[in-house]
Design brief:
This protein is mostly helical. About 70% of the residues lie in helices and about 0% in strands. The chain is rod-shaped, with a radius of gyration of 25 Å.
């Protein structure tokens, strides 16, 4: 069996790969930030609803 050389990438392809990796990591970071904002908005909404129901002394049902 022939061995595959470890360093088969040229400097140019390494540069492109790092740029692609940077773009992917930026996209992942933006997605995580968007999900984080959505989760915080949902938590804030639910806590406001719970406070309103507690003020009205209504039953609170949790899923």
């Amino acid at each position: 069996m022939d061995r595959i050389p470890v360093n088969t990438y040229s400097r140019r392809s390494i540069g492109r790969n790092s740029l692609a990796t940077e773009r992917i990591s930026t996209a992942v970071a933006a997605t995580v930030a968007a999900v984080e904002r959505i989760v915080f908005a949902v938590v804030r909404f639910v806590s406001d609803e719970v406070e309103e129901k507690e003020e009205k002394n209504e039953d609170i049902f949790v899923l």
